[in-house]
Write a structure and sequence with these properties.
The chain contains eight helices and five strands, in the order E-H-E-H-H-E-H-H-H-E-H-E-H. The longest helix is centred in the middle third of the chain and has 17 residues. About 35% of the residues are buried.
Length: about 200
């Protein structure tokens, strides 16, 4: 047997959305490969496409909090921060998301007010380790995105893609080939929750 106490697990995460026009094709690509992902959605888009959120949860994916408006959380009052996060939480719960609600700040800003609020409410902030489509030269082709990830991936990596908008076509097209390549290398492509559970299970 393999002497690998910890499984090689990576988390696949998608930011923004959801949008009805794309959700079914995303679900299909993941379902074909037995992969699960965590979707950091904005409350505003989830409010506009509630069925998209419900579908994702029903498929075994995770919905998580990317604020309501995707505004930079800088120079924002504590009450505005609370409203941005909690309005989105209630929409995530309405879509059927159970268990912890992970949080990812827009633009990864974690300045004074936000960490204080997150700490006081016991939130887990989840950033990322690999973000291929944040580099325009990488994101010109699906192959560029896949190669960027494969050069950097290791067990525990958190991969970020932005698949929801027309401008991100190559990100969408990269998802299937990326999962195939990771699975061939022995990785299980999972949600953030499953990754954190796998990371914790080796500790005794």
């Amino acid at each position: 047997a393999d002497a690998r106490p910890r499984e090689a697990v990576v988390a696949l995460t998608f930011d923004d959305g959801p949008r009805d026009v794309i959700v079914d094709s995303l679900i299909a690509v993941l379902r074909e490969r037995g992969a699960r992902a965590t979707f950091f959605v904005t409350g505003r888009e989830l409010a506009e496409a509630p069925r998209a959120g419900t579908k994702l949860v029903a498929e075994g994916h995770e919905l998580a909090n990317h604020t309501y408006s995707h505004r930079r959380m800088v120079f924002v009052s504590p009450s505005r921060i609370r409203e941005e996060v909690e309005r989105t939480d209630s929409l995530l719960r309405a879509a059927g998301q159970r268990g912890p609600l992970w949080f990812r700040p827009p633009y990864a800003y974690k300045l004074v007010g936000l960490p204080r609020y997150l700490a006081s409410t016991g939130r887990t902030t989840v950033t990322w380790s690999i973000e291929p489509d944040s580099y325009s030269d990488v994101a010109e082709t699906p192959e560029g995105i896949v190669q960027h990830v494969l050069r950097r991936v290791r067990p525990g990596s958190i991969i970020l893609l932005h698949p929801w908008y027309d401008s991100r076509r190559t990100s969408r097209e990269a998802i299937g080939p990326l999962i195939d390549s990771l699975q061939r290398r022995g990785y299980r492509v999972e949600t953030v929750g499953a990754l954190l559970a796998a990371a914790g299970s080796g500790d005794g």
